[in-house]
Automatic annotation (TrEMBL):
Species of the source: Rhodocollybia butyracea
Highest rank taxon of the organism: Eukaryota
UniProt cross-references to SUPFAM superfamilies, sorted A to Z: AttH-like
Protein name: Hydroxyneurosporene synthase
Taxon lineage: Eukaryota, Fungi, Dikarya, Basidiomycota, Agaricomycotina
Keyword Signal listed: yes
Amino acid sequence: MIVFTKAGLAISVASVVLNSFVRATSFDGQYLQPNSTNDAVEWWWGSAVGTPESAGTPGPVLQFLFYQGYSILVDSDHSSLPEYYFTINGFFPNGSDFSVTVPATSGNIIEGAGNVVTGTWGEVGSFQTSHDLKTMYVSFNAPDAPYGISGTMHFTSNRANHFGCNVTDSPYFDEFMPPPSQALTEAEQILFTQLGWAVSIPGGTVDVDVTINGTRLQFSGNGYHDQNWMPLALNEFVSSWYFGFAEIGPYTLSYVSVTPVNSSIAFNTGYLATDQAVLQNQCSVNGTKITDISIIQPKGEMTGAQGTVAPSTWTLSYIIEDGTEFEFEMVPTAANPNLNIYQRWTGSITGGKKGDESYEGVATFEWLNPGLNVYSSSA
């Protein structure tokens, strides 16, 4: 991830960016038109997480982000920066990490029959989702210095694609806005009405075969792919963003918890599924209901990125509509990226339905912290 930080760009530019909406006809298609004249950003993210070869090591892991625009911006004038690029982060099986950022001359999305989407980032990277969103193929082609990345990833989904909030027709969260009697700030309005999220591959398998600076990384693991877009860089309207996903025993799960800038609102989404059913796919504001909710709670303390304090464990709770409870605990092993504004951990996850069998697995969970919030377990 390329990070450019600066506070104070005027949120009112959102009204200008709205002129660039292009509502995708394919689920994983183009929803905005980010370019050098606006602050919009759209990205396609994917992750492969393998089983660690030994205790205390996070690898193997490979995660990518194909970007149009910048999720964190230093300046409203970013015309000198590459508009299109992709990032690679992960771990080799021995636990050593790698990070690669590759600029591209273009970032084109072409929508085909059904839900076929082909993304082409110049000559250095590409991806394609199938018409039924059951498979995704990713290719990297920048083997020479200073990038040193080439190879492929092949995803096979085991769950149906979904938007958040248990809806089938909208990638936005406006149905779950607080009532009109509660006046919302512009940052809160952007969160509910203009931040989009589409999950094409909630879980499944992925085969990885890449070479990074001369070292081959080949493994099969758990796969995940989603897409986000928004009319402004995240630091303009988001203060804190928790996200995570895992496959553990019979469960596929993910969550998001977002707090806007200068806001007390914590907006949560939670997804929990098995082969038999989607147990939950909900959206809610913290404190507004007692069932059909998900809650992510950071706990404990450890040394985080750049001398900061970070949580040493995370407890993820789901209470589905009939009151049945599921609980999982995640413990970080290592982080990459590992910045005070963005920490993405790979670690262990244990848990399941309360009172039933407990399972073990590997999870990815992150804290995107544009507001540079200070964490304390006693807060």
